[in-house]
Every structure is written in C-alpha cells, then in structure tokens.
Write a structure and sequence with these properties.
The complex is a heterodimer of chains A (443) and B (266). Chain A is mostly helical. Chain A is built from 19 helices and three strands. Chain A has a three-stranded antiparallel β-sheet. In chain B, a hairpin with a 2-residue loop joins β4 and β5. Chain B is globular and about 55 Å long. The chains are: A mainly alpha (443), B alpha/beta (266). Chains A and B meet through α14 and α15 of A and α3, β6, α4 and α7 of B.
Chain lengths: 443, 266
C-alpha cells in the first residue's frame, strides 16, 4: 500500500501541507535558531567583559583625579616675616606660625586638639618651607590674606580614599593613629578636603617617595612629539609607497615579494622594531637615547605596514571606471591618480592612518628597548625642538613605570593614566569617524 | 532620425578616412583576442561595431585610443594610422592621443564632482581655456552639444552623480566633447539606459556625426541600424564583414553575419 502510494505520486510532488513545517525545514530552522543564540551569547560575553573592564578602570582610576588638600586662608604680616627671617631655623618659624593659625581656626569651631609640628609634617609635609618660598617669591602678598591649597601626604590621601583605615594603620613615622583625630577634626572644620588633582594631569613624574606629586603631563608631551614624528614620516611614506605599488608598479615577482613582506611586517611583534631601533638609531646613528625622536622613528617603522595596507585597500576600492573616465579625457596616469583616485580614497587613508597612530600611541614594548621607560621625566622639554631630542617618556611607558612601583598610591596613578590614555585613543577614533563621514562620497 | 540607406551611402562615399587600421592583432597573455583586423573608419560617420559577447569589438575599440595600455597583459600589433600617423609609434604620448580620440564608457562614470567640474576637467588639464569666462563658454557649449544644457543649467554646481542614468551618460558625452576630440569612441553607451534615455543619446550621436567621427560598440542590432552608416561585424576575434549599414542588414555577404543578425548565433 505504501509502495503503491509512492509509485502513484506524481514525480517531484511534495507531500504535506504548507501550513505545517516538515522535518527537514524544522531541523533547518532549529539550526538557524541555535546559531543566532551562539552569536548572541558571544556578543553578550564580550559586552560583559567590556563593562567589567570599563567599571574596573573607572573605579580604580577615578581616585587619581582627586587629592586631599588643606585649604586654608593665611595671612603673614611684614613684621612676622622679618621676625621669621631673623630666626636661626627659619622654616620652623613659619611652621609655628602656620600651626598657631590652624589652632585658632579649630578653636573657632569649638575643637580643641593638641598637635605639634611633627604631626603637621606627617600630614602635610614641610609646610614651613612651602610658605617661606611663597612669601620670598611674592613679597607683595605680605599683610594680605592668601588662600593656600596644601597637598596632604599620600597616607592621609589614602585615609580619605579608604586605602588606609584606623584598623590597618600601624604607627610609624609616616602617620600615627592620633594624627587621624586631627585629620577628622580638620575635615569637620572644612579645612581638609578633596580637590581636583590638576597636578596629575599637568605635572611630571615624581620620585618613588612622592606619589602625590606624580603627574602624566610630561609623558603626554612625550607621546605628542612621538606622534608628530610618526604622522609626518609614516603618512607621506606610506601613502607614496601604496600609490606606487597599487597604481604604477608592474606586476612581477619583485613587487609580489614586496607585497608579501609588507603584509608580514604588519604582524611582526613590536619589540622586534624596538631592538631594531636600538641597533640602528641609537647604536649606529648615535641619536639621543630616550628621545621622542627615536621613539617616533621606531613607531613609524611599526605603523608603516598598517598605513600601507589600509591605503592600498582604499585605493583598490575606488572603482576602475573613475580611472577610465580620467584617462579617457586625456589625463595622465599621475593626474588620474592625484585628481580623482586619491581624493576618493582619502577617507579610507585617513581612517587607516589614525588607527595606525592610535596603535602606536598605545605601544610600550619598543619603548622599553630605546630607554623611554627607565627614564623618568621630571619636567617639560625646554622649547619645541628640544621636545624631540630631550629624554622623555610616553603615556603607556609612564603607566608601566607607575604600575611597577612598590607604593600602592602609584597603583591608582597607573589606573588614572590608563583613563587618560583611553581618552586620547577615543578622541582619535572619533576624529577618524568624523573624517570618514565628512569625506565620504558616493559614486 | 537618419536618412534612407541609399542617400546615406552616397554621402558616405565622399568621406575621408580618419582611422586606417591594418593587420591588427591583440593578445591578452596567451589569448589571441583580435586576429588580422583591417578596417578603415571614415570621418563624419557613425561606425557601429556589432557581434556576440567576447568577439573583440570592445577590445578593438579600446585600441583606438590606447586604453589597452592600462592592461598589463595586453599586447597590440599592427598599424593604426590616425590621419596617417601611427598611434602606436614610440613617439606618441597616449595622453595627447586621448585628447584627440575621446571615449564614452558602457556605464556612465561621471566624476563625483560638480557638473561644471566634470566638463571643465578636460579643458583645464589640456589648457584649452585662458580664463574663467573661456572655461564657462566651453562648459556651456559642451553641455549644449551634449543635449543636456537645459536640464542642468540651473544646477551646474550640483554633483554629477546626482543625475539620472541617461543624464549622466549625456554628461559623460559632453565631457568627452569638451576636450574637442576628432574621434569619439563609445563602448555600449546605452546598455545601462532605459529606452527613453537611449533614444535621447541616439539622437545626440546622430547630431555629433556632423563634426566627429563616431565609433560605437553596441549589442543592439536595432541601434546599429538606427544610428550608424557603416557597420563592422566581429566574430571570435575576426572582422567578418564591414560595409554600409544598409547593406549589412539587408544583404549580408557572409553567412555568419546573416546568422547573427537573424538571431541564429550570438
């Protein structure tokens, strides 16, 4: 009966109704659903890690942008100044003046606490020196109230940020439990508080014993000069090489070899470029060590393959009909390329260049080898040209240096540095997107 | 649109020869794409190249302004005399040649620039205009001769790619005319256009015959019959038959031509 019905069915006729899915279709649909679920899961996992990363960075890095300060109005008269200057221990005299001022402020608020100069030094460092320097430099401020914002020591800062607690604190010459009473009192009086840490953004790196004074500003400048070198070398060289390879070079074994090598160069570990830079630029050409110029040259070598590959891809994506059109009206090959092909390839070239620059900006490994890590920039370069040749660091190298230090206060600086680095990268990517949107044309 | 075959024949006979091509061979690598083609293209005439796909008609057309130079593997042999001068002579600069032999392509390919700049580009790079007014004149004249002036005169600075397909193709023709060529090569100029735009372009081709030698490659035999005075039939790289359009379509000599135009091969 079944045999007969099969034989009798018209050839190729499908049995069953369209309203119910047959077994094959059901299987196929299930496979499709599973695949979508896999994709969605993969995406959600990625998103989860992104959120974790972002939250961790912001939570760990945000404290780097604030610091604990003692914000106090202080007035020094001419007589007090003269008296202090005639003392044997001049800074001690200033300290005592400051302490009595602070005492008076606390008493006003009804807080009576005993503290001595040593406590103040544990809290604020050498206040007397700071005051003396200010008044000697600005004698005009004598007799007038001056607002001082004195940075608290990193342990006090840690107490404010929860790194140091009364339970974990062990009395030492850096901080004692009794000092925390004073800190609490000062906070209650509104004298000690958290303020935005401009030093972190504008300052240079400090010594290992002074995390509070550490800033990323100088290495931002170092990175900036390196990026200048990279931009002005790799963009013209990369674009010229791509145009030649894509539009003019004959197709033969030699150009094939070059193409393969460029693709391979893009995958070479960056530390290899670092050691090449050390050997060629520093040991052979005797360029200055630790200089952004050398860093820029090394990063240029590293960025070139990226720029060449992306430029060639965007030149390839310009339809050949545009070249034909230009050649057809009697433009030379070069005119066709420079008047028509290159402008159309520009968004792709710029995007590739900025992505290459962003990569270079975040690169640390090659900098290790040319001495931009061991060096700690304590100040800004002296003038524009010196920016290229004076020893400096770069943002990722500075972050690496901080992360490697023993003092936990540097740990938050490293996270804060990462936030600044990411802000720069984000800015560059946004610029790339804007440029792409602006130059994009249809044909 | 064009005169009766007999009168056209009479006129054609008095025309002088623009292109004299003899024993032309084209190779793409190992492929012999054009075999022993000899053809004489007349001035102030529309010559149509017809034939099945891959027969070599476009290849031959591209030889006439050395567009094949851009293809690495292409090799051209034989003599191509334009007004008695061999265009493949070592002394000939293809750029100068292409200013003299303009080309319109299969797909409209305006530059993604303004309509004005599309036309002005050729005259600018060839130094045909002394100043802005000169250039304006050339642009207007070219657009008028390209039969598109009335449609675009109010938006000369709008993008050329924003026009419709037919308008774009007429813009490309106007662009080719702007460099004042002597020969105009058209590679299937209407294949991407609808019948109305095709009609406009065909009308334009007929007008261009007054001043240029026009060579058109087409897949449409009706189009060849409508616009051309001379027709060449290519098959498998050979030039099978070349003669007056009327004669080719009504009384072909070669049986292959007859098979093709009656739809039996192709």
């Amino acid at each position: 009966m079944t045999d007969a019905s099969i034989n009798n069915a018209a050839p190729g006729r499908r049995p069953g109704s369209l309203l119910s899915a047959d077994v094959r279709t059901a299987k196929r649909n299930a496979a499709e659903k599973r695949f979508r679920a896999y994709g969605l899961t993969a995406m959600l996992i990625g998103l989860f890690f992104l959120v974790v990363l972002f939250v961790t960075i912001v939570r760990s890095g945000a404290p780097a942008f604030t610091r604990t300060v003692v914000d106090v109005e202080f007035t020094l008269t001419q007589e007090q100044f003269d008296a202090a200057e005639s003392e044997l221990f001049k800074t001690k005299a200033y300290s005592n003046l400051f302490i009595s001022e602070l005492d008076a402020r606390l008493e006003q608020d009804g807080l009576d606490l005993d503290f001595d100069e040593a406590a103040i030094e544990r809290l604020l460092g050498k206040v007397g020196g700071t005051l003396r320097e200010h008044y000697r430099a600005n004698p005009g401020d004598l007799g007038q109230p001056v607002q001082f914002e004195l940075a608290a020591s990193s342990r006090v800062d840690g107490y404010f940020k929860g790194r140091v607690t009364r339970d974990t604190l062990q009395d030492s010459r850096f901080l004692q439990a009794s000092d925390l009473d004073l800190v609490d009192a000062l906070e209650e009086a509104g004298i000690m508080k958290q303020a935005f840490n401009w030093t972190f953004i504008t300052g240079a790196d400090s010594g290992v014993d002074n995390p509070g004074g550490a800033g990323i500003g100088a290495s931002v400048v170092g990175s900036f000069f390196m990026m200048l070198v990279v931009l002005f070398l790799s963009l013209p060289i990369g674009v010229a090489a791509s145009i030649y390879l894509e539009e003019f070079a004959p197709q033969n074994r030699f150009t094939d070899l070059i193409e393969v090598n460029i693709s391979n160069l893009a995958a070479v570990p960056s530390i290899v470029f670092g050691i090449l830079g050390l050997a060629v630029f520093i040991q052979f050409m005797h360029l200055p060590q630790s200089a952004p110029l050398v860093g820029g040259l090394v990063l240029t070598l590293m960025t070139l393959p990226t720029i060449i590959i992306s430029t060639r891809a965007s030149l390839k994506s310009v339809p050949p009909s545009i070249r034909d059109a230009a050649l057809g009206v009697g433009a030379s090959k070069m005119q066709a390329v420079f008047h028509h092909v290159l402008p159309l390839a520009m968004p792709g070239i710029l995007t590739g260049t900025i992505i290459g620059l962003a990569q270079a900006l975040g690169e640390t490994a090659p900098l290790l080898l040319i001495g931009m890590v061991g060096f700690v920039a304590r100040g800004y370069p002296d003038g524009f040209l010196a920016g290229f040749t004076e020893p400096n660091s770069a943002m990722p190298a500075q972050i690496y240096t901080w992360a490697a230090r023993a003092d936990v206060s540097f740990y938050e600086k490293a996270w804060g540095g990462i936030i600044i680095l990411l802000a720069f990268l984000l800015t560059m990517n946004i610029i790339a997107i804007i440029l792409r949107r602006r130059f994009e044309r249809r044909w | 649109m064009y005169d009766a075959p007999h009168t056209a024949e009479m006129k054609v006979n008095q025309k002088e020869i623009k292109f004299d091509c003899r024993d032309c061979q084209v190779y793409y690598g190992d492929t012999h794409a054009i075999k022993d083609v000899s053809v004489q293209i007349e001035d102030k005439t529309v010559t149509a190249f017809i034939g099945p796909s891959g027969c070599g008609k476009s290849t031959f057309l591209r030889c006439l302004n050395r567009m094949n130079d851009t293809i690495d593997v292409a090799r051209v042999e034989g003599s191509f005399l334009l007004d008695g001068e061999n265009i493949y002579d070592k002394k000939v600069d293809p750029v100068q040649l292409r200013a003299k032999v303009g080309m319109v392509f299969q797909k409209p390919n305006p530059f993604p620039k303004s309509i004005y700049d599309n036309i002005a580009y050729g005259p600018r790079i060839h130094g045909l205009a002394k100043n802005k007014t000169d250039l304006d004149d050339i642009v207007e004249r070219s657009l008028r001769r390209g039969a598109i002036w009335d449609e675009v005169k109010d938006r000369l600075h709008a993008s050329g790619t924003g026009l419709s397909g037919g308008q774009q193709q007429r813009l490309c023709i106007a662009r080719a005319i702007a460099t004042e060529p002597e020969v105009l090569l058209m590679d299937e100029p209407c294949s991407a256009l609808d019948p109305i735009a095709t009609g406009q372009v065909e009308e334009l081709i007929d007008e261009l015959r007054e001043s240029y030698s026009v060579v058109i490659v087409t897949h449409s035999m009706q189009q060849a019959a409508r616009v051309s005075q001379k027709t060449a039939f290519f098959h498998l790289g050979n030039l099978v038959e070349y003669g007056e359009t009327g004669q080719i379509f009504t009384n072909p000599v070669d049986p292959r031509t007859e098979s093709y135009i009656t739809g039996r091969i192709g």
